[in-house]
Amino acid sequence: QVQLVESGGGLVQAGGSLRLSCAASGRSFSSYGMGWFRQAPGKEREFVARISSSGGSIYYADSVKGRFTISIDNAKNTVYLQMNSLKPEDTAIYYCAADRTSYRGSYYSTSRTSYDYWGQGTQVTVSS
User: Fold this and answer.
1) Strands 46-51 and 33-39
2) What is the pLDDT of residue 64?
3) Whole-angstrom Cα distance, residue 1 to residue 112?
4) Rounded CA gap, 114 and 127, in Å?
5) Helix, strand, or coil (residue 29)
6) Cβ proximity of 21 and 78 under 8 Å
7) CB atoms within 10 A of CB 92
8) DSSP state string for 58-109
9) pLDDT at position 47, please?
10) Range with the lowest mean pLDDT among 76-80, 92-96, 101-105?
11) Which of 17, 30, 68, 109 lies at a CB distance of 3.0 to 4.6 Å from 64, suitable for a disulfide?
12) Are 125 and 13 in contact (CB under 8 A)?
């Protein structure tokens, strides 16, 4: 069992930056693949980024590529999402998720059904 707690959300102006954190508790964190998803009002939850337990395999959604960076610190049981050049369309609740399978191909990495545990989410609001 893994518990995930996100933090770092808030209100920021367009062009600004935020860093989200996801602290994990439970056993075997270092063997999990970790992902970030987001859900805007009235929309489906969508994939943002994923990182393998070693940090050697990373995927990004096209909409955030070049602006967001995912990283992992296994010593702290924490995964991060650095978000730069934020846009109003990035406004959403951001969720951290853990996958018991560390490595996946791009198709399954972006699918919500690949993830076994979810956090409660943190709100990110980008004003224009």
Assistant:
1) antiparallel
2) 98
3) 18
4) 32
5) helix
6) yes
7) 22
8) EEE-TTTTTTEEEEEETTTTEEEEEE-S--GGG-EEEEEEEESSS---HHHH
9) 98
10) 101-105
11) 68
12) no
